[in-house]
Structure prediction request, 234 residues.
Amino acid sequence: IATGRVHASAAYYAKQLKTNAPVISCNGALVKKYNDSRAIRSYPIQKDRIAEVIDLIETFHTMYYQVSTENTYYFTKMNKGIEKYMEWNKTQKPEDRISIRPIEEFSTDKKGQEVYKIFVSHEKTENNDLHRFLDEMKHYDFIRQVRSMETSIDIIHHTVDKSKALEDVCEHLGISFNEVMAIGDQDNDVGMLKKAALGIAMGNATDEAKKAANAVVGDNQSDGVAEAIEKYLL
Prediction:
């Protein structure tokens, strides 16, 4: 599992799959097994500069953000997406729930609380504030941004990438990239799709993801992952 979600969210699916393989979360910023408190690799955003990033985001009033730690989403704006996620969260067992808290409760002073991702979202695809924000971000060399959806950006440590995290997993498992198949559908999957021996794009993937892949399968509403596994692994 390699995702932009926080570890607690990704770990839920690893638990359902009953896999002990390392989980890649926050676009590669954290690599660890769901049932092990120790991280295999950890790349948090520089703690003493997080306030700078948040201050920059808050100057653009058409955008809102979420701060992600290992197990918690801190949100600034309640919307349908957050409400839906919170409702789903209530249906889970207490030990599987993700902590979803208002941004007012966030503090970099909390012991052991590392920030792995800052999710920034805007209301429209074409947004002048977004372009100005991306221009401003070029001056911050300790972070980088990746697109995880059409109207959102993930801000992560400047060295972080899913392909780098996949490299960490391979090293941990003692295998090479020649033994790896990767499946993805967004721009944050491009590096991973290029680096794997076999990169598979979902039918609903972005143009960049499809361009990076060796093959394209069905979309995420048509069992595309199952198709890839049956066709290329079994």
